[in-house]
C-alpha cells in the first residue's frame, strides 16, 4: 500500500528537520553536561602540563586523568573563550569537575611548577651537572662545587672523602622549579642512600671490601657491562683480580682518567696516563666511583658470581662478553673479537 502525498511529505519533514533538531538538542545537552556536570567534583588529582603542550594535548591529559569527560568539549570551549595557552606546571584539580571549572583552574596558574630531571645510569658527575644546569635558575659550577665541598654528604661517603661521584641515584626526578642546586643535589644523594640501604649496602662486606669500595666496584660494572646477565660475571672478574693482587685493567677507568665522557673508546696510549684512576698502572680500585650506578650493578657488586674468571672481552655487537680464566684463553677470545671487527 503506497503512502499518500501528505504522509510522504510529513516523513520528509521529520527526516530533514525534526531528526537533525533532535540530534542538535541531544548534542547540546551533552555539551552543556560536559561543561558543568551535575553533582559535586570527586577526589583530588595532580595533573602535570609540560612545556609546549597545546589545547588538544592538555584536553587529552585531563580526560585521561578523569578531570573532564570530553577532550573535544574542552578544546572547543577553551578556543571559544580565547584560552589557548596555559602555563606549564603541576595543577591540583578534581575528578569529574567539568570543563568550565578545569579551564578556570588552569587559567589561575599551576599549583606547583615542577620540571623533570632524568639522570641515566653510567653518567659521570660532569654529565649530571650538564643535565641539571638545563633546569631554570640552576648554575652548573655551583652544583659541581657542592658535590665536593661537604654542602651535601652521603652516608656512604667515608671520612676524608669529599666527592659525591657515584653517590647520586640515577632516576627521573620531579623537581620543584624553585629548588636550587644544593636542594636538587640533596634529593639525588638522599635517594641514593635510601636505595642503597634497601639493597643491603649498609653493613655489607664482600671479600673484605666495605660499602664505599663496593660502590666503586658497582661503578666499574656499570661502565663495562652492556647485558644485565653479565654484571655478576664482570663483578667476579674484578673481585678475582683484586684477590690475586692483579691490576684491574678496566678500560672504563682510562676513559675517566682522560676526562672526556663524550669519547668512550680508550686507546693504547691512554694506558700510560698518569692518574690514580688508571687501573693499568695503579693497583687496586680507583680513588672514587667513576659513574652513577644502577640497582642491577649494585646487586652484582654485592653478590658476584662464583667463577675463576680473570678476563673478559667483547664477543658481539650486542655487548656480550667472552670470559676467560687464563691469558691463553683471553688471547684466543681477543683474536675472535678482532676477526669480528669488535676491536
What does this 3D model show about the protein?
The protein is mainly α. A two-stranded antiparallel sheet has the order 1-2. A two-stranded antiparallel sheet has the order 3-4. The protein has helices spanning 5-35, 55-64, 71-80, 99-107, 125-132, 140-146, 181-198, 211-224, 231-243, 251-258, 295-302, 327-339; strands spanning 44-49, 89-94, 114-118, 172-176, 311-314, 321-324. It folds into three domains: 5-107, Dna Ligase, domain 1 (2-Layer Sandwich), CATH 3.30.1490.480; 114-198, no CATH class; 221-339, no CATH class. The model has no long low-confidence stretch (mean pLDDT 88). It contains twelve helices and six strands. α5 (125-132) packs across α6 (140-146).
Strand content: 5-15%
Q: Helical residue percent?
A: 40-55%
The chain-level structural class is mainly alpha
Shape: elongated
Rg measurement, Å: 30 Å
Largest sheet: 2 strands, antiparallel
Question: How many domains make up the coordinates?
Answer: 3
In angstroms, what separates the terminal alpha carbons? Answer: 90 Å
User: What string, H for helix and E for strand, traces the elements in order?
Assistant: HEHHEHEHHEHHHHHEEH
| Total count of helical runs of at least 4 residues | 12
Give average pLDDT, whole number.
88
Uncertain ranges:
none
Counted beta strands: 6
Output the strand order for the largest sheet: 1-2
Amino acid at each position: 500500500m503506497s503512502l499518500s502525498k501528505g504522509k510522504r511529505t510529513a516523513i520528509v519533514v521529520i527526516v530533514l528537520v525534526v531528526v537533525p533538531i533532535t540530534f542538535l538538542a541531544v548534542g547540546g545537552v551533552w555539551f552543556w553536561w560536559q561543561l558543568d556536570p551535575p553533582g559535586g567534583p570527586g577526589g583530588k588529582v595532580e595533573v602535570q602540563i609540560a612545556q609546549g603542550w597545546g589545547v588538544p594535548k592538555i584536553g587529552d591529559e585531563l580526560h585521561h586523568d578523569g578531570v573532564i569527560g570530553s577532550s573535544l568539549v574542552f578544546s572547543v570551549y577553551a578556543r571559544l573563550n580565547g584560552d589557548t595557552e596555559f602555563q606549564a606546571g603541576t595543577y591540583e584539580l578534581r575528578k569529574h569537575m567539568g570543563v568550565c571549572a578545569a579551564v578556570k583552574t588552569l587559567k589561575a596558574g599551576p599549583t606547583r611548577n615542577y620540571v623533570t630531571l632524568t639522570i641515566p645510569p653510567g653518567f659521570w658527575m660532569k654529565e649530571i651537572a650538564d643535565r641539571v644546569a638545563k633546569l631554570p635558575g640552576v648554575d652548573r659550577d655551583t652544583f659541581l662545587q657542592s658535590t665536593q665541598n661537604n654542602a651535601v654528604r652521603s652516608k656512604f661517603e667515608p671520612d676524608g672523602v669529599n666527592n659525591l661521584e657515584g653517590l647520586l641515584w640515577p632516576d627521573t626526578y620531579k623537581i620543584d622549579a624553585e629548588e636550587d642546586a644544593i636542594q636538587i643535589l640533596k634529593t639525588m644523594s638522599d635517594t641514593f642512600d635510601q636505595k642503597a640501604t634497601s639493597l643491603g649496602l649498609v653493613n655489607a662486606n664482600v671479600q673484605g671490601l666495605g660499602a664505599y669500595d663496593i660502590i666503586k666496584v658497582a661503578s666499574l660494572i656499570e661502565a663495562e657491562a652492556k647485558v644485565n646477565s653479565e654484571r655478576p660475571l664482570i663483578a667476579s672478574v674484578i673481585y678475582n683480580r683484586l684477590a690475586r693482587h692483579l691490576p684491574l685493567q678496566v678500560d672504563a677507568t682510562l676513559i675517566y682518567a682522560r676526562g672526556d665522557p663524550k669519547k668512550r673508546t680508550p686507546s693504547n696510549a691512554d694506558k700510560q696516563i698518569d692518574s690514580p684512576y688508571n687501573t693499568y698502572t695503579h693497583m687496586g680500585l680507583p680513588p672514587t666511583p667513576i659513574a652513577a650506578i644502577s640497582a642491577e650493578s649494585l646487586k652484582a657488586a654485592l653478590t658476584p658470581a662464583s667463577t675463576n674468571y680473570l678476563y673478559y672481552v667483547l664477543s658481539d655487537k650486542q655487548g656480550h662478553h667472552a670470559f676467560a680464566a687464563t691469558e691463553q684463553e683471553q688471547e684466543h677470545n681477543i683474536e675472535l673479537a678482532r676477526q669480528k671487527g669488535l676491536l
